[in-house]
Specification:
By secondary structure, the protein is of the alpha/beta class. The protein is 26% helix and 18% strand.
Length: 213
């Protein structure tokens, strides 16, 4: 991923807090500063089809071989987006030259939200699950293990305590573990030893590790 151009695509915006990691959500913080209610989920009026948009030279605004953070100001699998998601999948399918990173706290909805031709997964889609503490890790990662996807990431973010991943990594293929803390107002502590020990576990199971914040 480090050599790819990084872009962001938010086909819809807004979310509902559903987990301890949501307490100080950056989307809620930034929306509040603009006088906007982040709990209202809305379809983007201008950028829903961003991956298909071209500039005056007829080049894609999101260039080939980009890595696209998808729906990071919402959740791709949130219920309100059920009526829009098929069209979003069609866009993802059309841009096979771009990697779409979909990060979710709602992995339990995965099977009801994938397209009919998903099969073993799209080559250009990465499914990432966030798990901020041990409880959510042990709840969500067994579901991630069972789903069909070409590439799978674990985001321990925002990390709220040390999270033991050994029993998950030993029998599940994971392409990346990325760890990050909170930012903005009221950010909770992120201790170096948590990060260091997770990195050691990843090294043990030969899983790529990234500290993103």
């Amino acid at each position: 991923m480090s050599t790819q151009i990084r872009k962001e695509w938010n086909p819809w915006h807004g979310c509902h807090k559903c987990s301890p990691g949501c307490l100080n959500c950056f989307v809620y913080y930034l929306d509040a500063r603009r006088g906007k209610d982040a709990s209202i989920v809305t379809k983007s009026k201008t950028n829903f089809n961003l991956p298909l948009k071209k500039d005056r030279q007829k080049n894609y605004k999101i260039p080939p071989h980009s890595s696209v953070a998808t729906c990071f100001t919402s959740d791709f699998f949130i219920e309100e987006a059920d009526e829009w998601r098929k069209e979003a999948w069609d866009i993802i399918k059309e841009r096979k030259d771009v990697d779409f990173l979909i990060c979710t706290k709602r992995i339990e909805r995965f099977e009801t939200c994938i397209p009919e031709d998903w099969d073993e997964g799209y080559e250009n889609v990465i499914i990432a699950v966030t798990c901020e503490n041990q409880e959510k890790t042990d709840l969500r990662l067994p579901i991630l293990k069972e789903i069909k996807a070409k590439r799978k990431y674990i985001f321990v973010a925002p990390i709220l305590e040390y999270v033991e991943l050994s029993h998950h990594l030993e029998d599940m293929k994971i392409d990346l573990v990325s760890v990050g803390g909170e930012s903005y107002k009221n950010a909770r502590p992120c201790h170096f030893e948590w990060i260091e020990n997770i990195k050691k576990v990843c090294d043990k199971y030969e899983v790529p590790f990234d500290f993103h914040q």
